[in-house]
Request: fold
Amino acid sequence: MTAEFVLSELQSVGSPEKAAHLSRFFKTGPGQYGEGDRFLGVVVPQTRSIAKANKAMPLDELQRLLDSPWHEARLCALLVLVYRFQDKKTPEAEREKMYRFYLKNTRRCNNWDLVDLSCRDIVGEYLVNRDRSVLYELAASDNLWEQRISIVCTWAFIRRSDFTDTLALAERLMTHKHDLMHKAVGWMLREVGKRDRDTLTDFLERYATQLPRTALRYAIEHYPEDRRQYFLKMK
Reply:
């Protein structure tokens, strides 16, 4: 269970055509958010399968995958962490090591899928009954991916009808300049609304005029048409 072996597994199922498509989809061109990222052309279900088969990889080998220039190698490492973290047999001390290992590598989670498929299930779950100040440190970072981690992590709290940090971070991040953050903020607000429509409505009554239009559209997606139009006209 080495990084070299996992990379060979990923390469064996990769496709040049798919790699070209993924490079376009994840905006790897000059000046784009994924500039310079490289793809083997492996679809997520295949990466998940390889990650599950190598769930016992030691952290030093996972570090080699996270340091890889290949997008799918980094994703595979993160999925290994997720599967191991979720395993009921994993000791709490090991979960803490994985949480700290993840935080050490937040800048290697350098695209939105890498963030979204991992942060809730590791950082978010670890912080459920713990101090969450680290999320505000990430939100204050100058790094787009750390900022996205901060808000998407709160999905773990939303699932437990705990909205305090989601709303606080949404308020802090809603004036962010990047569209990927507008989508993340709107997405988490929508998740709040699925659990408690009144809480989301109250937030929108206060902040709809300040939310970027993309964030607002995401947030109100499950409202009836007349309510959607109400908030859009406020904007």
Q: What stands out?
A: The chain has 16 helices and no strands.
